[in-house]
Write a structure and sequence with these properties.
Elements lengths: L2 E3 L11 E7 L3 E6 L2 E15 L2 E6 L2 E5 L4 E5 L6 E8 L6 H7 L6 H4 L6 H6 L2 E2 L2 H20 L4 H27 L4 H19 L7 H7 L4 H12 L3 H19 L4 H7 L5 H12 L3 H7 L1
Parallel strand pairs: 1-3
Antiparallel strand pairs: 2-8, 3-7, 4-5, 4-6, 4-7, 4-8, 6-9
Helix pairs in contact: 4-5, 6-8, 6-9, 9-12
Amino acid sequence: MRDILTSNNYMKSEFPFWITRTSQGNINEHGHEFVELVYVVRGSGYHLFQGSRYELQAGDVFIINPGETHAYEVEPGGQMEIVNCLFMPSFIPDALLAELEITDSMDYFYVHPFLTHDMRFNHHLNLHGQDASHVLTLLESMIREINVRPSGHKTIIRLQLIELLILLSRYYTLMQQQRSHPSPRQLDRELTARRIYGYLERNYEKKITLQSLSTLFNSSIRQLNRLMREEYDRSVFEALHEVRIERAKHLLLETDEKVIVVATMVGYEDQSFFNRLFVRHVGCSPSQFRSTG
């Protein structure tokens, strides 16, 4: 089993957020149950992600999702300074996103981390000039707030993180537009489907309904399913089951939790339904999968 970092080592359940600026050295492969947003302030190094090695330099920004594994390498005598921002997906409530009507402004959070590895790290964001300064200023402000903890710091940090993700999404969208030239309507449909899939990946353990997704993404249920079928050749719930089963496979191999507990962890209250679904997707029962993994 790989080293899995848990949230209680860094943050409290009532405020699941932590941020620091640090000199990054070599770190062995590990995973974690929280989102990790990394900004490279200065220097260079290497990021090892799911078996591939990517060069890092100042201005790079990337996100590691819960359950993914990665590591860092810095050459002897070299230095790399990063800002490490950790938070649980629940830190930005759906209700707040819906109230602010900004779901379609969070593409870096919802879309980029769920691309293929090649697209994700060879087409990652690299900021410079005023863009880099703006992002670093926001990150440093959050560091001050969490270190000093003045009145209202929790609200300010949450709003600043949302501002940061919207900014990164703006830069990401501009970068995408420079690389490809699909029609505005085609691009919007693709991005909406990817937002939905990214949301499912990040919130698979929640009780998700088509109505709640319809409200969050400001689209009809019929339109949600049509967009998902066009982009992923499956309905919303077919995609959700796929995401949950993939996560269950990791949990079965990486933890000693009972099958019924794993089912609950990925969003299924009915173990018999989970077992039938697992067999349909994987070809064997959860217990058989664990014993042969």
